Amino acid sequence: MTTDIFFQIVAPDEALARLFEHLPRSARSERIGLNAALDRVTAAPLMSPEDSPAFARSAMDGYAVRAADTYGASEGLPAFLTVDGEVPMGAAATRPLRPGTAQLIHTGGMLPPEADAVVMVEYTQPVDETSVEVLRPAAPGQHVIQTGEDLAAGDELLPAGHQLRAQDLGVLAALGITEVDASIPPVIGVLSSGDEVVPASTRPAPGKVRDVNATTLAALACRAGAEVRQFGVAPDARAELERRARKALDTCDLVVISAGSSVSTRDMTADVIGSLGSPGVLAHGIAVKPGKPTIVAMADGKPVFGLPGNPVSAMVVFGLVVVPTIRRLLGLKAKEEPPQRPARLARSLASQSGRIDLVPAVLQRREGEWWADPVLGPSNLIATLVRASGLIRIPLDAGGLPKGAWVDVEPF
Prior knowledge:
alpha/beta, six-stranded mixed sheet, about 20% helix
């Protein structure tokens, strides 16, 4: 660790780039069943072992026909076909369709041999028990799902680095794939610090505050796909902070420390983080408000973050640098841009050139337009985020935005 890195402010992307240089490009993996696979991340591409569907089947209730037998059919001059039985559901259709005949078929039923189309039941008229009128012509392949139309054997179903959704699990089950190789969720150690911080279950004495960050950061980590271990609240004493930090580092894949509010405490936290392992602190200070006094470090192969103690700052920075690191450890593909809602700014906002400002805002609909009304307040007041709909991002060199300007709001 070198001292010249302290308080050299860098953009969040630059801090992450420095960190990612030291992270492995492939995630650890394990084999799991589909019942445990929701929201897990694929560690390798998944290929289709067979055609889907495995046989040609009807997409409609109606009659399986030879399309040529229906050419020219109309309501005024229907085609008359002999009904040659019914295709059994859940069984193979083995009886070939003879010219001039039709077989009753249901949605999902197997198309009988020699049939090449299905006429919807709405476009037929029964004559008697053994014949039917077809009121519209059918084209070859009409209302038929062909063999392999959905997936062909050997097709890539899902790429590596894909977070599994319910529909993904459904298609895997349809193809008989009951186990997948998934990335092992990284374990994140969450450690709070500060003489003024007490557990949330404690009634704080005068001058004390409850530990908000342990709860909010653990929730954000779980949502990002990590497992969480809590390491309590360390006092503003170097030996105890270092002891707990080393314990967290020994048992977790990455560690997050939320520091106390005083400058001396933040300095001590940076010193402790820098002593945990090589290469040490990679960035001390990022160009963002709130969250400037953030520490990004690597200790013997494991990421370590020092976040501000203020709850709003800690949550904002966690999303900027810790969540992308969790995603990297999971092997997730590059994250798509988050959904954003364009809105007009309800009041002017000042910002300092050279940093990104993230401002909580309430979205409101007025006369057909969305407006973003900033929720202003100190970064130690978590209720500002509770009242907000999302965050306005003021770019690095915007120098502020006037009332009525269009901004992008990233919803929570």
